[in-house]
């Protein structure tokens, strides 16, 4: 199976591009969705019970689900806790990503991940697509979408690889600085290119 990696900085429109690929019938495996699945109470991974044993039962919501906000507070306040969590979850997420990608049908599949480069997932893909917008557009769109402060979005942007680094690694770039119709046309064109390669 030919795997196309899809990523972009916060507010770049990665999800919009992903949805257009899905509408064209391309299977998409979303790393964010997989990351949520592995900590579900119903997951066979056992990750949730390990997290509760490590951090204490107060890390769970009354319905037994993970309290993501509380966990985020803990791991962002303490780098060793963040490392512990990453060591637990990253192998489980990778394993699930790979098995879901292998189960995909079609000419090619997409691995969508906001931290595809940062989490070293490049070895799992054949080609890399970057959804790109100028940083000021990124900031404006992310603030409007997430209702977060400029400082919050800037700190998220600072934690991601730089726009220049992303573009240097890209095999294909989707320029999302115009509207969704312009993005859709670029995705359709790229879809034809990938079909000819896959």
From TrEMBL:
Subcellular compartments: Cytoplasm
Entries under InterPro entries matching the protein: Depp_CoAkinase, P-loop_NTPase
Principal EC category: transferase
EC numbers for this chain: 2.7.1.24
One Pfam family, short name: CoaE
Catalysis performed (reactions): 3'-dephospho-CoA + ATP = ADP + CoA + H(+)
Pathway listed: Cofactor biosynthesis; coenzyme A biosynthesis; CoA from (R)-pantothenate: step 5/5
UniProt KW Heme keyword: no
Record keyword Acyltransferase present: no
Sites where the protein binds ATP: 11-16
Keyword field: ATP-binding, Coenzyme A biosynthesis, Cytoplasm, Kinase, Nucleotide-binding, Transferase
Database matches in SUPFAM superfamilies: P-loop containing nucleoside triphosphate hydrolases
One GO MF term: dephospho-CoA kinase activity
Functional note: Catalyzes the phosphorylation of the 3'-hydroxyl group of dephosphocoenzyme A to form coenzyme A.
Family: Belongs to the CoaE family.
Protein name as it appears in the record: Dephospho-CoA kinase
Organism, scientific name: Motilimonas cestriensis
């Amino acid at each position: 199976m030919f795997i196309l990696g899809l990523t972009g900085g916060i507010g770049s429109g990665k999800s919009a591009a992903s949805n257009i690929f899905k509408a064209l019938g391309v299977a998409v495996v979303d790393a964010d969705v997989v990351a949520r699945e592995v900590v579900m109470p119903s997951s066979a991974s056992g990750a949730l019970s390990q997290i509760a044993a490590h951090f204490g039962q107060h890390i769970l919501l009354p319905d037994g689900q993970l309290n993501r906000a509380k966990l985020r507070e803990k791991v962002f306040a303490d780098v060793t806790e963040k490392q512990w969590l990453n060591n637990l979850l990253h192998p489980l997420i990778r394993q699930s990503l790979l098995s879901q990608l292998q189960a995909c049908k079609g000419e090619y599949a997409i691995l969508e991940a906001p931290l595809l480069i940062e989490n070293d997932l490049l070895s799992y893909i054949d080609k890399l697509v970057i959804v790109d917008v100028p940083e000021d557009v990124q900031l404006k769109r992310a603030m409007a979408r997430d209702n977060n402060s400029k400082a919050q979005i800037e700190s998220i942007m600072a934690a991601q690889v730089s726009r220049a680094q992303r573009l240097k690694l890209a095999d294909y770039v989707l320029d999302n600085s115009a509207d969704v119709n312009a993005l859709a046309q670029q995705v359709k064109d790229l879809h034809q290119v990938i079909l000819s390669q896959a």
